[in-house]
Each structure stands twice: as structure tokens, then as C-alpha cells.
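Bug #77: duplicate submission created two jobs. Keeping one. Sequence:
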Amino acid sequence: MEPEAKSRTLLAPAKINLALHVTGRRADGYHLLDSLAVFTRFGDRLQVEPAERDAFSVSGPFASGVPLNDDNLVVKAREALRRDAGAPRTPPVAILLEKNLPIASGVGGGSSDAAAALNGLARLWALDIDEAELARIGLTLGADLPMCLKAKPLIARGIGDELSPLAGFPALALVLVNPGVAVSTPEVFKALSRRDSEALPPLPSRLDFHTIWNWLETTRNDLQPAARSIQPAVDETLKALKRAGAAFARMSGSGATCFGLFETGNVAKRAAIDIRGRHPGWFVAATRSMEAD
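Kept job's structure:
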């Protein structure tokens, strides 16, 4: 087979924490979470193909903020999979990352990129490796990796590694907005006022736009107050989403990206146009979440 024919392109979707409760902290410093996460049809894109020697390059609107050395999670994912499978089965590859998501923005971009690399390289190299083994390798790279490998609606507990897929969870119309600021996740966790919140309430038996919206009103993102204290632009972002007609608006993850929930995709697209008009320097994307299998 020609090398070009073996090229694979994968979506690395944005991970959106619709709700996130911090329920404890382990002795090793990892925080325990209870989070409902969805993944969007908008995200980074990763291309992998055979090559004479390993190469990693980045393009896209947020390429300038991406490290190209061994600190990058994509490179770490390649090497972790290579160590696990052995060098003879993992020949050199060229990896091109199209970086469409803001850096350090609370939407799991780096973890999603690494998950796409694990999935893509496992297929490119034709490795006999199952989902559980990939998740085990992914967890060595970061707590978000196992959920990003699934990339479907789920509840994540523990440090993010205890996953419960949500059957029947619908696609949601979303607008993602980032005011052009990065927020340090360690700083946000350091600024938490409490780390012993209750778990998420049970989801309603019937899942649609209105029941999910009502359920979200009973939940929180426990990281949002801490992020707002560090970066006041989070407040401005939430106000912009509400002004544009979002039925519900909240920060995702540790921020500063916020999401707005809209009843239809067309309403979301109009809201995105409105926000871009008022804030031309911001990152704004209208998208839909991926529904459950």
C-alpha cells in the first residue's frame, strides 16, 4: 500500500464539561470529580501517515502556542504507544496537528489531541490493542485521556478515569466562546474555596433539551468561581452568551472557555454571529455535541 493511502485524519473534539462538581482530594493531590461531559463536532484535526523519520508539525489559528518538542502530549502519546507495542511494530510517522481550539482554555484540547494520536496510530500501525488498553496508556499521560478516547456523552468520576457512558443523550446546539485569555488549571484548583461538594444529582429519565437545561440549573461548575477570581473576563464571556440569547451559559472545565446552550443549531449560529460582531477578537464557534451511540 502506498504511504499516501495509509494517511489517516481524525477529529480531536472539544470536551465540554456541562457540569463539574469537585467531590474530594486524594492523598497524592489529584482532585476527585463528578462531571457530565460532552464532545463537539468542532475541534482540532490530526493527520498521521508513514514517514522515513518521525515528524510533528502544527498548523491552524492557534498553532503559535503549541510546543513542538517532547513536552507536547501528542509526541508523548506516540512514544507511550511505541513503548507499549515495541519499536519493530511502530515505524516512523509524520503527525500534523491542525490547532483550531484555544490553548489552555478548559476544553481538553491537548488531551483530545493526544487521544486522537493514540487512536490514529493504533490503527495506522495495525496494533492488536483494545479500548481498555488504550485507556490505560492514556491515563499515564493525563486524567482526561480516557474520556477523550471515548468522545461520547458520559459521566466521569474519580480523577476522571471512572467513566459511565450516557445512552440516549441527545446532540445539543452549543456556542463556545473564549475571550482570548489562558487560565492555568493548577492555579484554578489552588484557588478553590472547598473540595468536598456533593455528587451530581441523578439525570432525568427522559433526556431532551428542556430536561437537560432544567437539570443543569441544579448543578454547578465548582471551578467557575475560582477562575472568575483569577480572570474576570470569564464574567464578560458569560454575559455575552446570555445577551446573545443562550438558554443556559456556564464555563467549561477550568476555563476560560464558556458555552451557551441553544434550542436549535440555527439559533446557535445566529448567536455566534452576534457575539463575533460585538467581540471581533474573541474565539467563537457554533457547533453541536455528539450524541450517544
